[in-house]
Amino acid sequence: MPLGTLDRSPPAFFKQGPSAISKLLFFSALSVLLMVADVRFGVTQPIRAVLSVGLYPVQWLALRPQMLVELGNEYMQARDVAQAAEWQARQQLLVQAQRSGKLEQLALENHQLRELLGLRERLETTGVTAEVLYDAADPYTRKLIIDKGLTHGIKPSSPVTDEHGILGQVTRVLPLVSEVTLVTDREHSIPVLNTRTGARGVAFGETGGAPLLELRFMATNADIEVGDMLSTSGVDGVYPSGIPVAKVTKVERRAETVFARILCEPVGHVQGARHVMVLEPLTDKLPPRPPIDKPQPYAQAKGGRR
């Protein structure tokens, strides 16, 4: 057979169709068209919704191993935390049991000594529970609003505490709500007692950003250390004595100043209190103050001596 008569075209099985460049241009144009249509008209949103529904079981199955591992880790961590908390609670329970065994004996001895010395009985205070509604809107003060007022028997200057210690005192009473000024407010001061040494002082609200107190007018050589606990002294006639107030966190003694700079951290939750106790102020239970003798004029005093 002559060579010129042979069919040189490839069989239909090996035909390539459009060239690669043609395919690239076509699909690039189609991609740009779909992106513009999706951005402008959201035509692919139904397709995405259908695909997401169809792929959800696959995604759910693919995430199961990871979730099982995370649950296992959380279980192990929670078990370790629970065991540590239980051990700490048992230790605290043993310490409290030892203290409670001495409490009755010390209370009896205290009562006998007070009767022996003829001292006045301690003043008992009653309280009203309240819930914190919100913080005051003034950013330059540290105050909060509680849901009890005049109709509930709240009085001005009433001390406010939580389960840990003193929070502040009532400074404004309305019929249904009251305003409480916290101990960390810069305008607030409270007489305190160092439970370790028995030294008295006055703690003021710190003017800085952190919710702290400053124990002012303490000499540089005063016996005070970091970690000392401060409680109410009861000498102001407002706060009952013996309620925790703050813990000393920083003591700065400088040679060029007479007084030390002492910063304290309040033990009460001044930033996260939810339920509080409003105590009755001691001013109503204290005896009246003696009258103050007015000084006589100089001429009258001189004439009286004649």
What's this, in brief?
This protein has three helices and twelve strands; from the N terminus they run H-H-E-E-E-E-E-E-E-E-E-E-E-E-H. With 306 residues, it is an alpha+beta fold.
Provide keyphrases for this structure.
306 residues, six-stranded antiparallel beta barrel, single chain, Thrombin, subunit H, 23% strand, 3 helices, alpha+beta, 34% helix, six-stranded antiparallel barrel
Describe the structure.
- This protein starts with 19 loop residues before the first helix and ends with a helix.
- Strand 10 (244-252) and strand 11 form a beta hairpin.
- The longest helix has 73 residues, at 45-117.
- The chain is built from three helices and twelve strands; from the N terminus they run ααββββββββββββα.
- The chain is elongated, with a radius of gyration of 39 Å.
- The chain has a domain at 128-284: Thrombin, subunit H, CATH 2.40.10.340.
- The strands form two sheets. A six-stranded antiparallel beta barrel has the order 1-2-5-4-3-12.
- It is α+β, with helices and mostly antiparallel strands.
